[in-house]
Amino acid sequence: MYMVALCQAIDLRHLEENMSEVVKHVLQQVVKKTLYNDGTDGPLLASRFCEKELLQVIEHQPVFSYIDDPTDTSYALLVQLREVLMEKALKCCPSKDDEEEISEEYKYLVFKRIPIFQDELKATVGDEVTKEREKFDNDDFPIANKIKMCITYLI
Q1: Is 21 or 149 the better-scoring residue by pLDDT?
Q2: Residue 150 pLDDT exceeds 70
Q3: For the segment 103-141, what is each residue's pLDDT rounded down to a tens digit?
Q4: Would you tell me the crossing angle of helices 51-60 and 76-90 to the nearest 10 degrees?
Q5: What CA–CA distance (Å, rounded) separates 123 from 152?
Q6: What is the C-alpha to C-alpha distance for residues 136 and 152, in angstroms, rounded to an integer?
């Protein structure tokens, strides 16, 4: 029973690593698509600098706490991602010339992008997770099981 439980833990950890990578990849695509500018050829937004913080949210959030429905707004993942963006929009950070504060209009542009980011993430992440889960179930995974690199793998 102990060996069966250990094998199941290894399988779950492998699934967790793969699903986390899928969500990170989708997040990076959505950030580039929605948070870099306001949809025009206007200035780059301050929100583009929060990609690292958004990825940290995914890394620190347990995958199985949201992976069954990553688009559910009641799960902590989307709430925490929104909080990072809100904090970025509210924070007064220097502009490109590092001398003036960001104007209220510029902050408003960042606020306007938050629902667009969320809608795009919801539209994309659910489909991608479903596709990758099907691939995983068919033994086609982007990240190989790390247990194969261990000396005890043969056991």
Answers
A1: 21
A2: no
A3: 566 667 777 778 888 888 888 888 888 888 888 888 777
A4: 150
A5: 41
A6: 23
Of 84, 57, 71, the closest CA to residue 127 belongs to 71
Task: Using the predicted structure, report yes or no on whether residue 99 has a pLDDT greater than 50.
Answer: no
Three-state secondary structure readout of the chain? CHHHHHHHHHHHHHHHHHHHHHHHHHHHHHHHHHCCECCCCCCECHHHHHHHHHHHHHHHCCHHHCCCCCCCCCCHHHHHHHHHHHHHHHCCCECCCCCCECCHHHHHHHHHHHHHHHHHHHHHHHHHHHHHHHHHHCCCCCCCCHHHHCHHHHC
Structure tokens at 105: 């209009």
Structure tokens at 51: 């990609």
58's tokens: 């995914």
